[in-house]
Amino acid sequence: MNLNYLDFEQPIAELEDKIEALESVKDDADIAKEMDSLKLKSELLTKKIFASLSDWQISQLARHPQRLYTLDYIENIFDEFTELHGDRTFSNDHSLIGGIAKIDEFNFMFIGQQKGRSTKEKIFHNFGMTRPEGYRKALRLMKLAEKFSLPIISFIDTPGAYPGIGAEERGQSEAIARNLFEMSTLKTPIIATVIGEGGSGGALAIGLSDTTMMFAYSIYSVISPEGCASILYKDASKANIAAESLKMTSKHLKKNKLIDKIIPEPLGGIHRDPEKSCNFLKKALIRELKSLQGVSIEELLRERHKKLLGFGRFSE
Amino acid sequence: MSWLEKILPSIGKNAKKNIPEGLWSKCPECSRVLYQEELERLSYVCPKCDHHLIISARRRLKNFLDVEHQFEIAPNIQSVDPLKFKDQKKYKDRYIDAQKKTKEKDALIVKKGLLKGMPIVAAAFDFNFMGGSMGSVVGEKFVRAADSAIENSNPLVCFSASGGARMQEGLFSLMQMSKTSLAVKLMADKKIPFISVLTDPTMGGVSASLAMLGDIQIAEPKARIGFAGARVVEQTVNEKLPEGFQRSEFLLEKGAIDMIVHRSELRNKIFQILSALNYK
Hints:
The structure holds two protein chains of two kinds. Chain A is an alpha/beta fold.
């Protein structure tokens, strides 16, 4: 099994292995022809598989170990970035990166969750699981953005807020609630993007926004499929089934008007073409920055409130 | 007939007939037998160990507000099962079961009424309704409560008891956190007092939104209050949790709440606070 590919991608992996094997002898005209035909076959197969992904397969892509993380986008998309640290009260949370950033002529405040790729990085960034001090740092920076009329861009990528003893002792609930409370009337535009995994309250605490975007193969959910399965099926291994019930992919959420825009991904997902992915995200961010630029604060808040108060379906 | 024979019929073979099922239960803390009539009189507090049992939202509000002039707000809002959610059982069926069991439409009851003559709005979560979980209906009813409080310039008191967001409504439920937090913010901007009473248990999405945003944060004794469930925390950190972790007394010590108030004292204390905040 090729570990660069997910289980449902194995037929593609087999073709790619064949293509790679031929690489060394491609000077031969016949073999070059054979390679071209295999490449075409691989592309068609990828298109076919990706045309009908299940919600569980999308969840796997959203958490793909080679998916781009916040720091990758900062490096590749932002023209300038000055990191700002700490919540001024307790510590600096490495799961949440923040700072003043610039893309083209747009200055903005940035906050984003970072999962980490190597084991060492993962531990340093706490797997993207934010603690109260991370949310408080985010709030501090958002208040700063409001003060200096900078729009806010947030990247969401977290399995959830960190469920630890210290996090509970320092008021994880209060930190999340306070962010929602303040963000609901913050007098500056907020643009949130789910770049991978949007895990529950831990995501929402930097996700309340005027515009919420999601990469096509990212997920945003009230509970992880594993958590849902362990509660409702008493069996976390039924996560694949729970994933289908939770309707947590970008397509479902857009249809239910719970998010605003979907950012496309290259064929095979972000990790298959990082450069193209960066371009897609950059274009989407500039488009949103431009469209919110001329909007008065009164109108911005009126629309934000209309949106927040409109969430929910019920009968009366 | 001896005195024993006089008593025996009632506690002997006829006892079952005389005390139908549901007339008594046991204290989950000290196992004392509690009679329904006694429980109702004591607002579901154990007379032996003082354990605060879970109390239905309707009884809570009935006891908290003055007997007269109680008016329910938005009593008929119901879920429409937006995701057609199904696990081993359909959400629709679970919902109907919960309605039958509790005789409520959903997990939040909102009332306008008087507290010792002071007009207020009061909301209470019903833990017996799907664990007091917050979906679209709970969010909307909380907003209506806040709207009513703003419109009439009345304070809002909310008694929370909830496992968190209702997963059967997916992201619709998560978004109720934003929706209710905005409602609290709009009250704050109008200087409407919001008193949040945290009761056993207040966890997850409810704790991480409206319940932690009170101007005054009150908890009932020994209530479990937190974001992540104790079992999840234990599994994550792989160590034993500190004594009294996530209980009211622990939160008071950590600075998360203003005070712990016995259920029987809530009416007096909240009236006293609101009066001190110049609400009449």
